[in-house]
Every structure is written in structure tokens, then in C-alpha cells.
Specification:
Belongs to the D-isomer specific 2-hydroxyacid dehydrogenase family. Keywords: NAD, Oxidoreductase. This is 2-hydroxyacid dehydrogenase. GO terms for molecular function: NAD binding; oxidoreductase activity, acting on the CH-OH group of donors, NAD or NADP as acceptor. By secondary structure, the protein is of the alpha/beta class. Helix content is about 35%, strand content about 15%. A 7-stranded parallel beta sheet has the order 8-7-6-9-10-11-12, sandwiched between helices. The chain has a 5-stranded parallel beta sheet with strand order 2-1-3-4-5, sandwiched between helices. The longest helix is centred in the last third of the chain and has 21 residues. The chain is globular and about 60 Å long. It starts with a strand and ends in an 8-residue tail after the last helix. The mean pLDDT is about 95. The structure holds 1,4-dihydronicotinamide adenine dinucleotide.
């Protein structure tokens, strides 16, 4: 069976080629993202493999149907980039990697939080410049602070445990209660309560119509002044313009993001020789209390190996036995 990869980076080739050795499928890797024009690059592949910023719209799905594509294999956990209703109507199945290494993303959320709090990016540069002063670098003890976690699925659960380990008071909001976390000491509360009581808020819920711009002008007002906001989930959970206003007036004390609402035009690409046209992102990068990484939360050796193995297993299972593992409906 032939599989065509869109948005493939060098590490995708490396890890998927390694994972493919056991029971080889015919893999073809394209650096190009999936868009209407690039559907012309599909030859006779019945499976396409896409990543988070490949937007599989209804228009693209109708072209995939014409091209006899049977399966869209997401090599990601999030699936907000696929028009599932259109895929169902076209009879094209969608599978994903529901969990690979929740530790990778949860540990990255911690990295953003601690780097921001202790201003590691500033001290790194100061020391390299032989400036060994400390003024402006003071942080807070995380111990004893209240951390609010929105979404306690795979990643949120690991993050809750990490923060409990540091000695934080952990409160959470989810549509489901994880009893294991309750026993560990996590208190579930309403979204408003979590936002208004937390010194630190970390987002770990999926992007859906119900969660789009969960952090907006109104919800920011209910948050504590000086709150540290961390988002490693999806950019659309945050109304970035409202967050910029709150950073300007000091209501948000610091912001750490691994995802950005308009990231599909930028992330995973190198624009260092050009002028980036995104004024919102450019404004964000001017704040001394904002730390942005380009969707690297998943990017550990363990996670990449898991993603490759599970994605190929999803494909083989469908191709060989007609069984849909990890289907998204
Ligand atoms: P998951 O599906 O295990 O957990 C999501 C949790 O959010 C579930 O417990 C669900 O009940 C909850 N939830 C749903 N609607 C909610 C709402 N309205 N309010 C509060 N909670 C709600 O997903 P997982 O694996 O923990 O991933 C979380 C998100 O992290 C993904 O949706 C994805 O967007 C993002 N992600 C980011 C990565 C990165 O590299 N930065 C890598 C992998 C995932």
C-alpha cells in the first residue's frame, strides 16, 4: 500500500523510515503542505498522512474522494484541522495518534513555565555578554502557588502530577472528572472558579467550537492580576489580541505559548531571511515576559518513535484487516 506524507520534515522521514522496516509500506514524503493546489501531487496513493497544520477542508476532501483516497492518517493527537463531517460524507476514514508521549508535552509546559518565571532566556543572554547582574530576574516560588489546569486528559493529567510534585495547589476544570487525580489531591471546579483562583493557568483541552477563544477579553478580567498563562494545546484556545491587551496593561503577568492561532502560515518553516507579515505574532515577540516556541511540545525522541509506530500501525491495520484503530469520527 502506498502512503503519501504531506508537510514531511527530515525527522519525519527518519523516524517513519525506521518504523517502516518491520512490515514495509510504500512511503513517499513531500515537504509541501496539503492544500488544494498540492492535491495534484497525489498519484495513486490511497492513504495520505498529514500533520497539524495541513487543513483538510471539505473542498480538499472532495478532491481526495475523486482521487480514490480511502484513509487520512493524522500523525498527531489533535484533529481540529480535518472537516470530519465532510470526510464521513465522502466515506473517507480518519485515524490519529490519540496518545504518544503525554510526558513530552506536559514537560514542555513546565519548561515554558519555569523558563518564564526564572527568566532563563534573559540570564542566558546576560551571562554570555559577561553581565552577571540579577536585577530584573527575580521569579516566584512555584511551591504553594495555585495552578489551574483546563483539560485533564492524557497531557493535563501528567501536568497535574508534575505540579503536585512541585508542591502546588492544583485545581482543574474538565467535562469529565478523573478520580485518580481527585485522590491525588486535585480539586475540580467550574471554569470560572479555576480562572479566578489560579496564579498559573495551563491549557490542555482540545480546540473545538466550545473551547475556541476560551481565554478572551471577558475571561481574562476574571483572572488574577499577574497570572502566568501557558498554552501548549492549540492556538485557537486564546484570543491573541485580547491577550496582547492584557499583557500591555499588566493583567497577564507572563505568557508561554507553544501554539499560535495563525501558526499554519509560519511554524515548521524558516523565515529568517524574510519579513514576517504577521503583526500579531510580531507584537507578541516584543514583550519581555512572553516566551514562544514553535509547536515543539511533542518533539522528543520517544514521542517521534511512538507517533511513527502508531501511525503506521493504524494504516497497516486498516489496509490489511479493514480494522480502524484510533478512528476519529
Ligand atoms: P485528551 O483527549 O487526552 O484530553 C483532552 C481533555 O480535554 C479531555 O479530558 C477532555 O474531556 C477535556 N475537555 C474537552 N472539552 C473540554 C472543555 N470544554 N473544557 C475543559 N476540558 C475539556 O488530549 P491530550 O492528549 O491530553 O491533548 C490535549 C491537547 O494537547 C490536544 O487536543 C492537542 O490540541 C494538544 N497537543 C499539543 C501538542 C504540542 O506539540 N504542543 C502535542 C499533542 C497534543
Amino acid at each position: 500500500m502506498k502512503v503519501l506524507f504531506f508537510s514531511a520534515q527530515s525527522y519525519d522521514r527518519e523516524y517513519f523510515t525506521r518504523a517502516n522496516q518491520a512490515a514495509p509500506l510504500e512511503l513517499r514524503f513531500l515537504e509541501a503542505p496539503l492544500n488544494v493546489d498540492n492535491t495534484a501531487l497525489i498519484k495513486d496513493e490511497q492513504v495520505i498522512c498529514v500533520f497539524v497544520n495541513d487543513h483538510v477542508t471539505a473542498e480538499i476532501i472532495s478532491i481526495l474522494k475523486e482521487k480514490n483516497v480511502k484513509l487520512i492518517a493524522l500523525r498527531s493527537a489533535g484533529f481540529n484541522n480535518v472537516d470530519l463531517a465532510a470526510a464521513a460524507t465522502a466515506g473517507i476514514k480518519v485515524v490519529r495518534v490519540p496518545a504518544y508521549s503525554p510526558h513530552a508535552v506536559a514537560e514542555h509546559a513546565l519548561t515554558l513555565l519555569t523558563a518564564l518565571n526564572r527568566k532563563i532566556y534573559k540570564s542566558y543572554n546576560r551571562v554570555r555578554d559577561n553581565n552577571f547582574t540579577l536585577s530584573g530576574l527575580e521569579g516566584i516560588d512555584l511551591f504553594g502557588k495555585t495552578v489551574g489546569i483546563i483539560g485533564t486528559g492524557n497531557i493535563g493529567t501528567v501536568f497535574c502530577k508534575i505540579m503536585l510534585g512541585i508542591g502546588c495547589k492544583v485545581i482543574a476544570h474538565d467535562v469529565y472528572i478523573n478520580e485518580e487525580l481527585v485522590l491525588a489531591g486535585v480539586a475540580y471546579k467550574s471554569l470560572d472558579e479555576v480562572l479566578s483562583e489560579s496564579d498559573i493557568v495551563s491549557l490542555h483541552c482540545p480546540l473545538m467550537p466550545a473551547t475556541k477563544h476560551l481565554i478572551n477579553k471577558n475571561s481574562i478580567v476574571s483572572m488574577k492580576k499577574g497570572v502566568i498563562l501557558i498554552n501548549t494545546s492549540r492556538g485557537g484556545l486564546i484570543d491573541t489580541v485580547a491577550v496582547i491587551d492584557a499583557l500591555k496593561n499588566g493583567h497577564i503577568g507572563a505568557l508561554g505559548i507553544d501554539v499560535y492561532e495563525q501558526e499554519e502560515h509560519l511554524f515548521f518553516q524558516n523565515f529568517s531571511d524574510t519579513i514576517v507579515q504577521d503583526d500579531v505574532l510580531s507584537r507578541l515577540t516584543t514583550f519581555p515576559n512572553v516566551l514562544i516556541t514553535a509547536h515543539q511540545g511533542f518533539f522528543t525522541k520517544e514521542a517521534l518513535m511512538q507517533i511513527s509506530n502508531i501511525t503506521l500501525n493504524n494504516i497497516r491495520s486498516y489496509v490489511d484487516d479493514g480494522i480502524l484503530l484510533n478512528e476519529v469520527k
